[in-house]
Design brief:
It is a single chain. The protein has about 120 residues and is an alpha+beta fold. The protein is built from 6 helices and 5 strands. Helix content is about 40%, strand content about 25%. A hairpin with a 4-residue loop joins strand 1 and strand 2.
Length: about 120
């Protein structure tokens, strides 16, 4: 795990690093250039995930404090998720979307996150 990341960004970093190490990043994201933002709204942790050319980059977004901030960031999609739902996986996130507890921009965001956390 990278010491630059903590909490939820560290979870995603670990998954992506493992995928890259075992050559699965290119397999799951061939010819992909996608920027996904995850905003854990009850902890105010936000980070972007760039997946491009078989590599990835995660950036903490310290300035994001509310959902309106997300609309000013150039990205392909985002998910605004409470921490308890995020930790339960994709099925809980899908349920959260249907119950309006999770906000999503671009349905592909859920597919990307699902591939990252291996919960397809």
């Amino acid at each position: 795990m990278c010491p630059l990341y903590t909490d939820y960004a560290a979870i995603i970093y670990s998954e992506l690093w493992t995928m890259k190490t075992y050559k699965r990043l290119n397999k799951y994201f061939p010819n992909t250039s996608f920027v996904l933002i995850i905003f854990i709204n009850d902890t105010l942790e936000a980070f972007s995930i760039l997946i491009k050319n078989g590599d990835f980059e995660i950036k903490k977004l310290e300035f994001v404090k509310d959902i309106q901030s997300l609309d000013r960031i150039e990205c392909n999609g985002y998910l605004v998720i409470p921490s308890d739902i995020f930790l339960k996986g994709i099925e809980a996130i899908k349920l959260g979307i249907s119950q309006n507890k999770v906000i999503m921009k671009n349905e592909e965001s859920l597919e990307i996150l699902s591939k990252i956390i291996g919960d397809t």
